[in-house]
Amino acid sequence: MFELVFLGTSASAPSVQRGLSSALVMVNEHRFMIDCGEGTQRQLLRTGLGFRRLDKILLTHGHLDHILGLGGLASTLGRWEALEELNIYGGAMTLARVTMLMEVVFGPGQIPNSGVTLNLLEPGLLFEDKNFTLTVVPVQHRGPDCFAFLFEEKERRPFLAEKAEALGIPHGPVRRDLTQGLPATLPDGRVIQPEEVLGPPQRGARLFFVGDISHTGALHKPAEAADLLVVEATYLEADRQLAKQHGHITAAAAARLARNAGVRQLVLHHVSRRYTTQQVLDEAQAIFPDTVVASDLDSFSVHKDKPITTRNLRQRQQ
């Protein structure tokens, strides 16, 4: 149901292996970019996914390592990709900085004519279609208006084929209508109600994406039973005082959140150059074994009733 692609996974500054923070969540025809650090547009090209349908950018907060790529991306979309609409979502401080970037790209006072719309984020439901919802969750980091994003597939009632067979319901449009919750009339005149062939509601897939945070306590409820929890791991426990000083958490704290919230898999990102990937992984897996440290261009596919699958999109390069 959800595909998550990491475009950048480094903390604060890029490394040889990792670019600055950015990710892409794809749900059916929708694309949501989360953060846009320097170099994001090149990373997007390296995946082979391109710029098609890229019209929604969600910003976790306004620190420069999470937004500086917006200038270049908007310039490319506007000058080379026939930008029709680009919606950028962020808190008030974040949007103030983004406004300055956009005015450099398009000129003072030209944002309304550029195709770019700046939208103020508030906690609560942000987006909904027939299959899923996107909810904005407030978090603590440094400064106001910092957010995480919860993607949830809507509940569904499974179609009970054995009951349909017992009632003599033919395959085709009649079963489709019942699956969609509509009553159906059979060729012999009987009217079948959806409740006769649908099981109890089942929760759908849940992807909870968390960027930079200084505390995890308030996140246990939105993270509860998530299929995939994505959260920063900027520091290790040996440097937890530094983490506190700079408004971040440790890999161990992220793992405790995953364990206590009962998630299916934990993915760590926003990794500091001061540690090796293995050091981060070892600390987290000692607490929550089903942990992965994301690399740039890693892709995670999340389905409720299937294993979470991972691949790296570098294979798409030519």
Features:
alpha/beta; about 25% helix
Task: Please tell me about this protein's structure.
Helix content is 26%, strand content 29%. The chain contains 10 helices and 17 strands. The strands form 3 sheets. It has an 8-stranded mixed β-sheet. The protein has a 7-stranded mixed β-sheet with strand order 7-8-9-12-13-14-15, with helices on both faces. The chain has a two-stranded antiparallel sheet with strand order 10-11. The protein is globular, with a radius of gyration of 22 Å.
The termini sit apart by: 28 Å
Written as H for each helix and E for each strand, in order along the chain, the element string is: EEEHEHHEHEEEEHHEEEHEHHEHEEE
Stretches where pLDDT is under 50 for at least 5 consecutive residues are: none
Shape from CA axes?
globular
Biggest sheet record:
8 strands, mixed
**Strand order in the sheet with the most strands:** 6-5-4-3-2-1-16-17
Structural class: alpha/beta
> Any idea what the radius of gyration is?
22 Å
Count of helices? 10
User: Could you estimate the helical fraction of the residues in percent?
Assistant: 25-40%
Proportion of strand residues: 25-35%
Mean pLDDT across all amino acids: 93
Number of strands: 17
